[in-house]
Amino acid sequence: MEKLPKIALPAIFILIALVILISKSAITIGSGEAGVLYKTFSGGVVTEEPPMGEGFHLVAPWNKVFIYEVRQQEVFEKMQVLSSNGLEIKLDASAWFEPKREFLGKLHQEKGTEYIQRVLLPTIRSAARSVVGRYTPEQLYSSKRDAIQAEIYEETKKIVDGQYIQLNEVLVRDVTLPATIKEAIERKLKQEQESLEYEFRLVTAKKEAEKVTIEAQGKADANRILSASLTDKILQDKGIDATLKLSESPNAKVVIVGGGEAGLPLILGNN
Predict the structure, then answer these.
(1) DSSP per-residue codes, the chain
(2) Residue pLDDT, tens place only, 181-221
(3) Which CATH number fits domain 73-177: 3.30.479.30, 3.10.580.10, 1.10.8.60, 3.50.30.10?
């Protein structure tokens, strides 16, 4: 095998050095991510420029790029908090959030890549303790879950907005009360429901009785008016009309006009 020319060895070394240099300088930022550039010899974290976007980038090998996910993310937290009367409540919650892209350099410089553990989660815990402490276990169990969810969101958002984090939503997924308290609340709610049903039946029965009374009163008034309007002359005329209709039947008969009581027609027939 022939020896390589003397000029080939330096060229190979240069090529290898270039490959190593490019490999250390090449940065690929994926979908939903952004990069914060750290300049080792000229100012450290770059905060005055927009973060590096998706795709392929070349940076000086002595600099660093810290990659952050900038899509909406979700974090879960299980907490033990106290109600207004000092009972321990277990609360399962989650938060939807994302770092503020335009302040990503500031976030990295002041909070670092562990900003979720350092800022977001402690703030959610503090807000949850503050909010739940305003309510009784019964309120938490029955009617106030949406309210505490909204209040935890507002209190958390108020703090993390200034920490370069955008909070999109807080979801209270479960509220767990001590078993004895839960059973007592359920019994009370059942009794209240039965009481409401009983009151409804009483009201319904009362309305039905009032309806019957009104109908009976109406009939009585109608009969009284009718009785007052029926004079002897009217009764005689109606009796005549009824007798004449009977006379029109096909049975053989003799009608004597004025032969009956009160001057009514008298019908004599084969029956």
Answers:
(1) -PPPPTTHHHHHHHHHHHHHHHHHHEEEE-TTEEEEEEETTTTEE--SSPPB-SEEEE--TTSEEEEEE-S-EEEEEEEEEE-TTS-EEEEEEEEEEEE-GGGHHHHHHHT-TTHIIIIIHHHHHHHHHHHHTTS-HHHHHTT-HHHHHHHHHHHHHHHHGGGTEEEEEEEEEEEE--HHHHHHHHHHHHHHHHHHHHHHHHHHHHHHHHHHHHHHHHHHHHHHHHHHH--HHHHHHHHHHHHHHHHTSSS-EEEETT-SGGG--EEEE--
(2) 756 665 666 565 656 665 767 777 778 778 777 877 877 77
(3) 3.30.479.30
